[in-house]
Amino acid sequence: MSLEARKRKLLTDFFLPAPQVARNESAASSEQAVPGLSLHPDFVSKDEETSILGFLNGGQCTWRTDLSRKTMHFGGEYCLMPSRPSSKRVEMKVAVANEVSASQPQIIQAPPMPQEFNWLLQRMMDKGLYPQGRWPQYCIVNHYTGNLGISAHTENFSFAQPVVGLSLLSPCAMRFHELVTPDGGSVRSGKAQKARRTGRHVDVMLPGRSLVVMNDDARWKWQHEIVRSRKGRCAGWERVSLTFRLKI
């Protein structure tokens, strides 16, 4: 092709998008962009999903409601946050003595990992997700609706790898932020927000009934979050996640 022909452009050429180098990935296979991350679709069946939700909502378990989202804990201890103070100053003065004690976080002993999860844990072991003979002892359950989410963080560094999360009901995007160096700062302390990031993030779609597994860099060097937004969430959107962890 001659130089003159190469220079000649069609009218439609001016409407083509300019080529760009993507810095933030968002695709079905984007988990491959986060080293150490793996996604296992359909890890549980629909009937098994119904069984898990039935156990969580069947009256045998108690949801905590001190956060914007409902949560539940199994294994170890957790911190129950105080209720938000009343906006009525008069009521606050009258009940000041009670509020002083109530304003302090409470350390609550969580019930042990329930036997109802044994089949699920055994499946994880059979798939080789955990070291032989080392079952996860801790589970956090989160219930998201509407525009609810959770801030970017890494799991506490007192826990080993992998960190394993089971997603139930509606699909949801989990955003991963690459850190300059591993950082275990918590959201509550404010240190998670101050962790140095490279500026690169990856959105990974988690279908309902899928299992996400974080090892290596995905566990230690990438924060993960559920962005607080209604974008991509239809009416009645609802997600329940179970995060399993084991002590180092």
Q: Would you write up a description of this structure?
A:
The protein has about 250 residues and is an alpha+beta fold. Mean pLDDT is about 85; it is low at about 1-10, about 10-30 and about 85-100. It contains seven helices and 13 strands. Strands 2-11-8-13-6-3 form a six-stranded antiparallel beta sheet. A five-stranded mixed beta sheet has the order 1-10-9-12-7. A two-stranded antiparallel ribbon has the order 4-5.
Features:
single chain; 248 residues; alpha+beta; 6-stranded antiparallel sheet; globular; disordered N terminus
Compute the number of strand runs: 13
pLDDT below 50 for ≥5 consecutive residues: which ranges? Answer: 1-9, 11-28, 86-102
Query: Which bin fits the share of residues in helices?
Result: 10-25%
SSE class: alpha+beta
Helical segment count: 7
Sequence of strands across the biggest β-sheet: 2-11-8-13-6-3
Distance between the termini: 64 Å
**H/E series:** HEEHEEHHEHEEEEHEEHEE
Spatial extent as radius of gyration: 22 Å
Biggest β-sheet description: 6 strands, antiparallel
General shape: globular
Mean of pLDDT: 83
Condensed summary:
The chain has 248 residues and is α+β, with helices and mostly antiparallel strands. The chain has 7 helices and 13 strands.
